[in-house]
Amino acid sequence: MFEMALSALEIVFDPSRVVIVALGVIIGLSLGVIPGLSGIVGLSLLLPFTFDMDPFTALAFLVGLQAVVATSDTIPAVLFGVPGTVGSASTILDGHPMAKQGLAARAFGAAFSASLLGGLCGALFLALSIPILRPFILSFGSPELLAFCIFGLSLIGVLSGGNPLKGLAAAAVGLMIATVGEEPNTAIERWTFGSLYLLEGIPLVPLALGLFAIPEIAEMTIAGKAMRKEHGVTSTWGQLDGVKDTISNFSIVLRGSGIGSVLGAVPGIGAPVIPWIAYGHAMRTEKGASETFGKGDVRGVIASESSSNAKEGGALVSTIAFGVPATAAMALLLGAFLIHGLSPGPDMLTTRLDVTYTLVWTVALANVLGCGICFIFARQLAAIARIRVGVLAPVVLSIIFIGAFQATRQWGDIFALLGFGLLGWVMKRADWPRPPLLLGLVLGGLLERYMFISFQRYGADWLSRPIVIGVLLITAYSILKPFITDLIKRRRKKDMRYVIRFKPNSIDTTFWFNLAIIIFFLIAIVGSWQWDFGAKLVPQVIGWLGLFLVSWQLAATLWLRTESIDPAMTHGKSGSNIKNSDTPSELDHLSNSEIRRRTTGYFSWCLLTLTTALLIGLLPAILIFLISYLRIESKESWKMTLAVGLGSWSVSYLLFHQLLRVPWPASFIGDLMPGLRAIGATNLL
Amino acid sequence: MQIKKYYLLLLFLLASSISFSQTAENFYAGRTITILVGSGAGGTTDISSRVIAEHLKRHIPGNPAIIVQNLPGGGSVTMTNYLYRSAPKDGSVLGYSLPGIITAQMMEPRRARFDGRKLNWIGSALKYTGIISVMSTSPATTIEQAKDTELFIGTTGRGSPAHQFPMMAQALLNLKFNIVAGYESSNDVVFAMERGEVHGQSSSLQAWAITRPDWLADNRITPLLYMGPPDPLAVPGVPYLRQLVSSTRQRALVDFIEIGSQMGWPLFAPPEVPINRVETLRTAFNSLMNDPEFIQAIGLTVRAELQPTSGSELTLFVETSLDTPDTILSEAKSILGLDGR
């Protein structure tokens, strides 16, 4: 086996292959940076070009590409709070606040070095686990996956920071959204309103971009100022500070990459969940983390990033050994294997071990190259944050629009983006944590699937399986532990008491938002009342639970106060005012009416762009948006407007239209004259 | 705005007058044909479309470039709706769908806003033979035993052909299947079989040849029943659903459930495409079916032998299928548990 590994090393480090891997890495990095694009796009685009390569080179190229997407998706997450791929959503929580504090380069340094180490650990895991792979993965059945989902849900408490009630309610909203689409057992269409778009559920990409990116850009434009300048003079190589952070927190890297590679290898857990689990784990176990995570703690970045790169090695494992792709990108890679005449399965661990080890080395090499490239440019990347908001915001926004559209390439993607964008903004203003909603959505579908399969197949016996028992015990412990500590603390704080008194001044945005969520759950309960048992079980349970949580929350804001018994300290905080783990607001210097005015302005621009797009097509509408926003809203000179507007639009045009050949959705004008779509110059309609 | 519209209109008229006066060869020379694939990337549908795109261009006069775009959703219905309504009707955009596209039109007329009779069928290279296979260690390994012994069959969901075949077989042959729906993909069901969570699933023999060639070779799986066109790779002696039913009504139900598998993965053009271009494409497709390089590529990538159907045969088949009597259609829906549609 060791000889195999060495001869594979020779194959990978053949100079021509190193060049090919480097090419794959550069493409992979570029895809990760652009929100909405992921390795899948690159793999499907480049697959035909590998037909003429030898299998080793072809797979090295594709695996190299895929391995580093999770490295560069950090860049927009840190700079703008925009997830480059869904996997980097948890990096935003601490990475973006760091950028706001002028520590972008440091965040990058930490993220890239953690990615590198994570990726290498993933490769190591891939290499070491080969002998024990099959029994390990085979021990994960639907009941085990169900237990893992329940464990994942228990992280919601952690991710909601100071306010578990709001966090749980937000998660319930996410779980409810996850029920949209055709229910597999009954074929009942839940909340699809007859639309094909909703039949397969709400896709993750527009939802994640809407929930996180749209509100961050909103805040940026509303605040009207660029992020803070880089700190001090010492930061010529600010990223080195980040590397130091990673090294001094090496145990987080180890645990993060362990979580990433092991869970990544298990088919059915799903890539988007994994960084959250690592993040939640670090938050729970690190000293003082519950106070500082979410406010720019570098340890949060390290935990997410190490796990997200490690998962690629893990995911490759199950693809190779079982032909069961753990992620969508791996499904494509599986296709590439077949095209090159390789059958994933036991053979890959015995007679074709050379191929497997080639892949291990490729993952390692790609991570070194990818992180190296990102690391060198970290300072230049960090400087992007200093560009004027008036110029930066429209460019980023236009990329988000086009990126969100890559999810299913239907108008629904843009509607979902803006709908969830608005929801995200209101949640941010009303101080509701957004991560639990995303986690609820990601876990909701899995939870329902594995629950039905487990019960139908094993009845209640699924609970008696050893791994299930183990995971559920860990879950119970981690849920109960904070309560117990809380109880002890509260006993110490005997001088505080709860006072029930109506507070008329608490009827504000938060109040109205809570009320809207109550109505949302009521509609869900009533709407699912008539369905067959299989289809309505989850919506009903979640609906009632959510209703209870939000009502309690509402009642608490209206009536409940904690007061100190000592009259000198009576100006106590109201029960729900503790800051949650979400990214903090930057708008304190503006009056409420000014914020309202600017918010309306921002969302009007979004809506206007959508309307124009429906009329004349997405890409032309983006051009109009860029030019008019830069000129009218940002009051840039014509020279600047045209340079930035045309420049960034041309990049989108070349990339999405010429290179990726995106089939644009039918606009009004295009439908009026379908012939226009046949002409090269007008086929954007 | 007004001026722009006129300008566009003029451009449109100009373009369409040019295109109508061209011969097919002139039309395709230097042009790019787009094949819209009604599935996501990866998987038999996507991969076979890419192999076809790669080789078909040699057979079209003018040697156009051919590119593939994925437009997944609703079992290819999203793509076909788009092709039918919004794609240019000049032969530069074609559709490639999952086998069930005509069944979708019959079962979900509300969603499928296209008419199979008006689409221009170009041909299909592969057919789909559905085979219910179980692990050889299962409590029942023949169709007779499955009438008394419960078997867990894993599927993705009620809407999928892999669910519908066992459902129909169960109803027609009184089998004791316990159908566990909700797996993410058929690969996940294979995995569930391997760890003993379910006993079997319905898929194609080619799918087994791709995912678990060793299982076939070592007889770790046993085929119980098959439907659709006889598979060239089929194991001899496996019961055939069509031969196990007797009444006219039952045969009609088998006909219905087999529509998708007989059509296979069809390539088609939108309505109103000039007939000479449709003919050019059909001829090219037929000659592709005899291209040894293509046959080899298909064998290598999707592990299937060619079972070609020409455009005219497809057209005829679609018309017959769409004439299925309403009584049979509604009975099939009720057996499959899809009456709600």
What does this structure look like?
Chain A is mainly alpha-helical and 685 residues long. Chain A is 69% helix and 2% strand. Chain A is globular and about 75 Å long. The model of chain A is unreliable at 230-234 and 568-581 (pLDDT under 50). Chain B folds into 2 domains: 2-126 and 264-324, D-Maltodextrin-Binding Protein, domain 2, CATH 3.40.190; 130-259, D-Maltodextrin-Binding Protein, domain 2 (3-Layer(aba) Sandwich), CATH 3.40.190.10. Chain B contains 15 helices and 11 strands. Chain B has helices at residues 2-20, 24-28, 43-56, 77-85, 101-107, 161-173, 186-194, 205-211, 213-217, 241-244, 248-263, 275-288, 292-301, 311-322, 326-336, and strands at 32-37, 65-70, 93-96, 120-124, 130-135, 151-154, 177-180, 200-204, 221-227, 266-269, 309-310. The radius of gyration of chain B is 21 Å and the shape is globular. The model of chain B is unreliable at 16-21 (pLDDT under 50). The interface between A and B is large, with 65 and 73 residues.
Q: Any idea how many domains of chain B?
A: 2
Helix content, binned percent of chain B: 40-55%
Could you report the average pLDDT of chain B, rounded to the nearest whole number? Answer: 89
Side-by-side strand order of the widest sheet of chain A: 1-2
Reconstruct the topology from this structure.
The complex is a heterodimer of chains A (685) and B (341).
Chain A: H1 2-12, H2 15-33, H3 39-46, H4 55-72, H5 74-80, H6 89-100, H7 104-129, H8 133-138, H9 142-159, H10 164-178, E1 181-182, E2 189-190, H11 196-199, H12 204-223, H13 238-248, H14 250-265, H15 273-285, H16 289-292, H17 298-322, H18 328-339, H19 353-383, H20 389-404, H21 411-429, H22 435-458, H23 466-492, E3 496-500, H24 509-527, H25 533-559, E4 560-564, H26 592-616, H27 618-633, H28 638-659, H29 668-672
Antiparallel strand pairs in A: 1-2, 3-4
Helix pairs in contact in A: 1-19, 2-4, 2-19, 3-4, 3-18, 4-7, 4-17, 4-18, 4-19, 5-6, 5-7, 6-7, 6-17, 7-13, 7-14, 7-17, 7-19, 9-10, 9-15, 9-22, 9-23, 10-22, 10-25, 12-20, 12-21, 12-26, 13-14, 14-15, 14-17, 15-17, 17-18, 17-19, 20-27, 20-28, 21-26, 24-25, 26-27, 27-28
Chain B: H1 2-20, H2 24-28, E1 32-37, H3 43-56, E2 65-70, H4 77-85, E3 93-96, H5 101-107, E4 120-124, E5 130-135, E6 151-154, H6 161-173, E7 177-180, H7 186-194, E8 200-204, H8 205-211, H9 213-217, E9 221-227, H10 241-244, H11 248-263, E10 266-269, H12 275-288, H13 292-301, E11 309-310, H14 311-322, H15 326-336
Parallel strand pairs in B: 1-2, 1-3, 6-7
Antiparallel strand pairs in B: 3-10, 4-10, 4-11, 5-8, 5-9
Helix pairs in contact in B: 3-13, 6-11, 11-14, 11-15
